[in-house]
Specification:
One of its GO terms (biological process) is methylation. InterPro entries: Cro/C1-type_HTH, DNA_methylase_N4/N6, DNA_methylase_N6_adenine_CS, Lambda_DNA-bd_dom_sf, N4/N6-MTase_EcoPI_Mod-like, SAM-dependent_MTases_sf. Pfam families: HTH_3, N6_N4_Mtase. Keywords: Methyltransferase, S-adenosyl-L-methionine, Transferase. This is HTH cro/C1-type domain-containing protein. The protein starts with 8 loop residues before the first helix and ends with a helix. It has a nine-stranded mixed β-sheet. The C terminus is likely disordered. It contains 17 helices and nine strands. By secondary structure, it is an alpha/beta fold.
């Protein structure tokens, strides 16, 4: 069904080359191309007619055949197919002995869970072996952080080094299954590199409606030559239907100086009119920290911040709703869902012990972190910032009466001032 949606001539060349055990250097040399040009073609840069002819000759394939497999039909053939669309399909299925049966039913049975709580169930299995067995339209949120195809080591059954077309087709398989499970009005959130999400956004938009493309700004400060430093990940936020069942984004405190508590922005002179619960959340999230502290690390591989999942789950679901994450990783989605009173279902094809150990330890560190997160949201100033402003109010002329602090953690402006005095 999805075999050709993301295939280019370069994808076809890459797949044939790999199946024949040829390196890119070997194929490039035989075709008389620079290896850099071949790599560009396999990455999606359209080849010139001369390059395509040279590659086809080296692979002993007709150039027209390469174009055909990539989905390009000769104009004359296309005109005939419009007259009789079944003709080519019947010919191809007869030639290869393929039987097309429409919607296929899932093979096998739902595997047994490897771990469960009163709220959640975890399967140690490929998500494609689990999702087809779950009830359609039964989840309020699907959050996915799949492997990014960067050849990371996730342990056994590792497949994080696919050819580009294979990775994209594998992705469409689980995406299609996941969308079937989403309730009308439910949210589908996909976290990945912009490189991949530009493809997935177009693909998912056939069935869901894009609400936001969110940039999650995470800087590591690593030196990367010959290109702009990549400092953000992409979070696609789709909904099933025209409007979300739940959309309750948290508000954030004013951005203040960590030393004196002074505002980093002047807010156009409308301080008194600002919402006392804080500043609107934008589609650029600069406050999501990378997980580096050993207190919050649950595995050797990369791990998402609990703050990210707390925000997504809080924004898109209500207590008692159901959350699905097909790529469990360290179990951050499941921990956040458990603590926030949501039901959850997850799959993880690799070692599940980081997830089960996290739960068996009681999620105490996660609960403490979520308490800290919630204490610093939906308020105009954090308690720390208020204390700093009081300490330096005379030196810098801070005026608390500029704001309505009725929702601040210390009560009204006057109560705050009285408590410090």
């Amino acid at each position: 069904m999805t075999g050709l949606l993301f295939r280019s001539a370069g994808d076809v060349v890459s797949r044939i080359r790999r199946k024949r055990g040829l390196s890119d250097n070997e194929l490039a040399k035989d075709a008389g191309l620079r290896v850099g040009d071949l790599r560009d073609i396999e990455s999606g840069v359209p080849p010139t007619d001369e390059q395509l002819d040279a590659l086809a000759d080296s692979l002993d394939i007709a150039p027209e055949a390469l174009r055909f497999v990539a989905g390009e039909f000769p104009e004359e053939l296309h005109d005939e197919l419009v007259e009789d669309p079944d003709l080519a399909l019947d010919a191809l299925t007869d030639a290869f002995g393929v039987e097309l049966n429409g919607e296929s039913k899932p093979d096998g049975e739902l595997p047994d869970p490897c771990f469960s709580t009163e709220q959640g169930t975890l399967y140690n299995a490929d998500c494609r072996d689990v999702l087809p067995h779950l009830e359609d339209e039964s989840f309020d949120l699907i959050f996915a952080d799949p492997p990014f195809n960067l050849d990371k080591d996730y342990g056994q059954k590792n497949g994080d080094d696919l050819a580009e077309d294979e990775y994209l087709r594998w992705s469409t398989e689980w995406i299609d299954e996941a969308i079937d499970l989403l309730k009308p009005g439910g949210a589908f959130c996909l976290y990945n590199l912009p490189k991949w999400n530009i493809h997935f956004a177009h693909y998912i938009n056939r069935r869901l409606n894009l609400k936001h493309w969110i940039a999650v700004d995470i800087k590591f400060g690593l030196p990367i030559p010959n290109r702009l430093y990549p400092s953000h990940y992409s979070l696609l936020y789709f909904i099933k239907g025209d409007s979300p069942n739940t959309f309750t984004p948290d508000r954030l405190p004013i951005d203040t100086c960590p030393h004196c508590g002074g505002e980093q922005n002047d807010y156009g002179g409308y301080k008194s009119k600002m919402n006392p619960k804080g500043v609107n959340l934008t589609d650029v999230w600069e406050d999501i920290p990378p997980v580096r502290h050993t207190k919050y690390l649950n595995r050797d591989a990369n791990q998402l911040s609990l703050k990210l999942l707390h925000r997504v789950i809080g924004m898109t679901t209500e207590e008692g709703d159901r959350v699905l994450d097909p790529f469990g990783g360290a179990g951050t989605t499941y921990a956040a869902a458990e603590i926030m009173g949501r039901e959850w279902v997850g799959t993880e094809i690799h070692d599940c012990s980081p997830i089960t150990d996290r739960f068996e330890d009681g999620l105490d560190d996660d609960r403490e972190y979520i308490d800290e997160i919630e204490a610093e949201q939906n308020v105009l100033f954090t308690e720390e910032a208020l204390e700093k402003r009081q300490e330096y109010k005379d030196e810098f002329g801070f005026n608390f009466e500029d704001y309505d602090l009725s929702e601040s953690p210390l009560g009204s402006v006057q109560q705050s001032l009285d408590s410090w005095e």
